[in-house]
Amino acid sequence: MHIHILGICGTFMGSLALLAKELGYQVTGSDEHVYPPMSTQLSEQGIDVKEGYLPEHLTPAPDLVVIGNAMSRGNPAVEYVLDTGIPYISGPGWLAQHLLQNRWVLAVSGTHGKTTTTSMLAWILEYAGMSPGFLIGGVPKNFGYSARLGESSFFVVEADEYDSAFFDKRSKFVHYQPRTLIINNLEYDHADIFPDLAAIQTQFHHLIRTVPGNGLVIYPEGESAIDQVIEKGCWTSTQTLNLTGSSDSQGSWQVQLIKPDASHFEVYLNGQLAGEVNWELRGIHNMANGLAAIAAARHVGVLPEVASKALCKFEGIKRRLELIAEVNGVQVYDDFAHHPTAIATTLEGLRASVGNEKIIAVIEPRSNTMKMGVHKQQLVESTQAADLVFWYQPQGMEWDLSAALAQANGKAVCCEQVSEIVDQVQAQVGPGSHVVIMSNGGFQGIHQQIAKAIAE
Questions:
Q1: Residue 111 annotated as binding?
Q2: How does pLDDT run across 166-197, given as a tens digit for each residue?
Q3: Beta carbons within 8 Å of 148's beta carbon, 6+ residues apart
Q4: Does 110 appear as a known binding residue?
Q5: Domain Mur ligase N-terminal catalytic: where (predicted)?
Q6: Known binder of ligand: residue 376?
């Protein structure tokens, strides 16, 4: 069977392509703005990717077209599929029909930390000898690829709340019917498709409605947005995560910091020491992700002590505070953060680790929500942990980025050219400096440009 994937280089659709290839399908695809790591994965698997959305990419006609949620009416390939009657389906719909049936699905949802937590959970199960299948919206270094079928009934999936396709506006995760569900956190995001937080909460409650009574829902205590979703109705057992270390917590799971940057901590279950994690990651947010993964792994039979040992060997994910260059004493990182909360937690985690060493953030507000200016009042506060921040304002942005940064007291610089950012970063760094480049896209190759400039 030949399937053609429209939007194949997106993190979700690219992973889907890998699974389809492993199942034995002939897989081709089309996309624009192709860049690593997904383009690299697809090339390594021999999957033919066409540039652009031309109707001729669909001749001879495939048996099925999987349409990514970035596609809309008016797209030439979409119009050709509809006009010629080629069968089509959404990405989540294909995953549910062709792969998730009769499997124990462990789904990781939430506004932040999905990719990291899904990678941790898949690695824990792998470490425990359970050989899970997984689909992750990124590339975990422990595996080197973002998806596989696995050799057991367990399947770990990153459960995104973004919509499924132009013809299916339900969140992707509604298709997955998990038995084990993590909800990491819940904030307003995806302003291009959700009018407010309540609309997102409705989708999360639809997700909870699909979890069976003998399943498990795991979430942090004290998060009012999640509590409100649970209060709408929950027919499944729950376990809560206490991330504050408070002794009067009612949470099933607790943590105790050993190092303030959360690179070393203890895990407690119902008040009893259950494991200890000493790893390469930093930040309270990563500790929270790790605790959720430990709790979910226990639901399928992995002891917390074993899960904690697995996390000690967890290597992280590409594009999640990934050290990509060390030049003349300057460390350059690539990070996917594109929401004020994610920006803040990443920078705070790095600050806790490096002390008073200089941190320079370089940020591209590329997501649809950022481009719309929804979070513009939070930008300055989100970067407090950095010493200096360079913001890229692309042409066509509908709001004035420089005006939003006026309260930054000289710590924020707005630039309209990538070359200008490269020159200014080069002038500001020295031995012991840390440069964190934050974008959910390719950012015109600025990572390599900065590393090269520092080396000169």
A1: yes
A2: 999 999 999 999 999 999 999 888 778 889 99
A3: 18, 19, 22, 133, 134
A4: yes
A5: 2-101
A6: no
113 has binding-site annotation: yes
Q: What is the 3-state secondary structure (H, E, C) of 131-188?
A: CCEEECCCCECCCCCCEECCCCCEEEEECCCCEEECCEEEEHHHHCCCCEEEECCCCC
Statement: residue 247 has pLDDT above 60? no
Q: Is 251 annotated as a binding residue?
A: no
Cα Dmax for the chain? 65
Tokens encoding 89: 């389906």
122 and 140 Cβ atoms separated by less than 8 Å:
yes
pTM, full prediction: 0.84
Task: Count CB atoms within 10 A of the CB of residue 262.
Answer: 24
Residue 112 marked in a binding site: yes
For residues 362-389, one letter each, b for 16 or more C-beta atoms within 10 angstroms of the residue's C-beta and e for the rest, the string is: bbbbbbebbbebbbbeebbebbebbbbb
Residue 346 assigned to a binding site: no
The encoded tokens of residue 235 equal 């027919």
